[in-house]
Amino acid sequence: MSYLPLTDGERKTMLSMMGYSSIDQLFTDAGLSEKVKLGLGESMSEAEVSAHITKMAGEITSPVVSFAGAGAYDHLIPSVINHLTSRAEFYTAYTPYQPEISQGTLQAIYEYQTMICELSAMDVANASMYDGGSALAESALLSLRATNRKRILLAESIHPRYREVLHTYLSGLDAEIISIPFDQKTGMVDTACIERNSDGSSAMLLQNPNFFGVVEESAPRMAELIHRTGGLFIVSADPISLGIMEAPGNYGADIYTAEGQGLGTPLSFGGPYLGIMAGKTNLERNMPGRLVGRTTDSAGRTGYVLTLQTREQHIRRQKATSNICSNQALVALSANIFLALLGKEGIYELALQNLAKAEYAKRKLKEKGLRLCFSGANFNEFVVELPVTSAKVYKDLSKQGVVPGITLDRWYPQLKKHLLVCVTEKKTKAEIDRLADLLGRLVK
Amino acid sequence: MGETRYTDTHEWVRQEGEEQLVGITDHAQHELGEIVYLEVKVSAGDKLVKGKEFAVIESVKAASDVYAPISGEVTRVNDAVVQNTGLINQDAEGSAWIVAVKPTDIAEFNSMMDVAAYKKAIGEG
Amino acid sequence: MIQPEKIIYDYSAPGKRGYELPRLDVPAVDPIKVLPRTMQRSKKARLPEVSEVEVVRHFTRLSRLNYGVDIGFYPLGSCTMKYNPKINEDLARLGPFINTHPLAEEKATQGLIRLYYQLGEALLKIVGMSAITLQPTAGAHGEMVGMLIVRAYHRDRGNRRSVVLIPDSSHGTNPASATLAGYTIQEVASDERGRIDLNALRKAITPEVAAMMVTNPSTLGLFEEQMPQVAELLHEIDALLYYDGANANAIMGRTTPDAMGCDIVHLNLHKTFSTPHGGGGPGAGPVAVTEKLAPYLPVPLAVKAEGGYSFDYDRPKSIGRVQAWQGNFLVLVKALVYILTMGEEGLRQVSEDAVLNANYLRHLLKETYYFKYDYPCMHEFVASSRVLTAETGVRTLDVAKRLMDFGFHPPTVYFPLIVEEALMVEPTETEDKATLEAFANALKQIYQEAKTSPDKVKGAPYTTPVGRLDEVKAVKELDLRHKFTDA
Questions:
Q1: Domains of chain C (ranges plus CATH)?
Q2: Chain A CB within 8 Å of residue C155 CB
Q3: Global ipTM
Q4: CB contacts < 8 A (A, C)
């Protein structure tokens, strides 16, 4: 078989050198005398497995155009990225525990850490977490450790899946989660509720723009409220929005988390994605995940190493800041390359395009008589109110190859007639006009 | 200087005036290698409880919890050592004490290992 | 020798751009008019400004500073650094796989859910379990899921348990994961044969014990024939046995965690199932359980009905989600392609060759290095530089660094903790005989060199882009990001 380079002759030679006449004998000697039938099929050649998998790929209906967002975004992906991440030296490399032969991986992570800090106005970023949801959950755990408190405040306008993940992560621990509701008119978090509950809380967690695409304009005030009582302010923000939106570190956030999929990774039916985490300078010893630091070798050459490893499981075991070992390194590399390609002006322009397209879409929909659900400002997502159930609209439009957005009632039962619409730089004017047309017909 | 006594988790205690000084042993610093970080989890006025962890010492590749060898009230934390952890490698059982404590029960000190017993415990006696 | 590479910011100059966006076809908008004042970006992020050419050269040059499985041997114990088949990469990149939104409706994504389901079924057959989640995105993630399932199980039965047992040879993620689920850890000693000491285990079993986490073969590469007895001791007090599947490469088609008496299993797809390590991820850590524990698995599970395939979210006893979506889907595709390619006979051959290669390599080394546990091994073994260190002062660390000059990535070092100056070696089945011999020769040569010129070994490596790095400085003078000269 192609991935088994030993020949039968070699196997025999090796066995007899060790005094065995068969591999079964070797297993028995090692303590294992059984064999089991697994019930799997026969081996397949490349051509056969290709046909099998390609057939399954054929059973997938892709829309002609999709306005789905909700934490997984259809952004442009520069062709360079795949070429670079497909280099064997990157993707077949192991974790860089031996830095002398891993400088490629380590330096790339250092650059990535830098760029994430720049985007979010933070001082230290880790090498990645699993996804936006688990990154948010781990930031909550960080705040419990750092403040020695047992309660977190969680905005209900955070992605419902992220909140589910957070509940799971805290379920084994002695910690309380207090839900902070959002205003039904504006779509923004109720800051008065934060004020009532901040005393004794380890952190206030916010998503900005939030799950509904609404920009949380009172975020600085929230920072003040939680800081006043000694807690931390944790903000989850789409990194592309940070092209034109204020960096969380500049409006009081102590920890920044995010889903980094939009930075050069395709939708991939949900994974692998990229958990981003960054924090202010006094938090680095409490941070989970790998950290790369710059140093020198004995000849004075600059080099990069994994550092502050005593936080991690392989040294600290049950007292580690997290159990995380493998993370999403190659996806972080994609993000790194993406940010380098777009650069300082490109990320700004990209964010502007998203804003412009979403504003255009909102205007067109309003012209057709549709209502926006929330009054707050938006980046590239917003909630539209429909005259009929969004489930019906989704079904009808899908038949025409248009996914008009994400229906919300599975998470917010009161939002049965509402659609979360995402308009990225990839949507053309014609596609947006068509969406407005199709939805506009419902109003008639 | 008074007598120094030891624990099998490599801490030492020495009476100095009204206080007892607490630190980690020379053997421990040698095992850890170059010490890069010290986190003292108590401040002056806090209670130290015998057997409970009150500090963490780190080298690049290892982290060690420091356990209170005696109970008492912390009177001082040795800031010099917190700022310059290299002192622990240089003078672990002398000037690199970590906390000074007003002990609650002198019997705890008396029941600790003396230097001969400690040396034996670490295989040097 | 390959030259070091500048930091990308050193290429940066205002006005350079690496990627052009399409022209805006709708009216431009001034953010000042749309976004609230408090949310206006005050200062642009200082990302580099470089051309596409410079980006490509920079990262290409960086890649050349790396070692990878496609370059050479990684004898890393417990990592199973086997070859990453290229057909896996190609098939994972099919358009419908990479372009489908995770919330796309089930009617449109039958091919995806079917693939997901097929992988789950195949993995269940390999481990002998009844139900499986593919959501965890790494082994440690799977361990956390496993420990939360333990917790949910005991809670459901009204048991008050607070302790998880682990062998003293266990991987660090085990105690870290159990701690995340709220448990305290109790270590169980290994006996003089390097196996779980059953007497020590009997003493450790108290009414507080919720579960034990084991791996088999152990991290010493030794098969625990007594695992069924371990299982019995735990099951007697209604505690659960968790199997860390990091070493599954040794047992495929020979035994299963189910046969050992385990209740929960996690697998590492980036180890046993050939998906690439990526420099530290992405991987995947599916968790399989016995039937009685199925209700506690994370949501959703892929299920098959007459209408087709779907994701089942109606699982009231589930521990919840550990990730926003379905898991690292593209990694799952690669693992399925691998399993289909190998088939039953192939996977059995994988384990046989893995065990054969490890024993052969051990055979080549056992007259030279010290073996604390001198027994036939499974897919990995642990050697030690202990004697060498006592004689020459040269340590495992030095041997590891000198190996790089011979063109090899070092084995795992200083793990498991119960072996002094440990060198943990796992060749895997994708290494040929000549490579094993070359590696053994290198290790023997270094051993000799340590005796005649220890300083030479202690100063290694000499032929790598950088020498040994000052890790003390990296901690004491923390430099975790590039700083700009203009503040």
A1: 8-63 (no CATH), 87-341 (3.40.640.10), 344-472 (3.90.1150.10)
A2: no
A3: 0.97
A4: 681
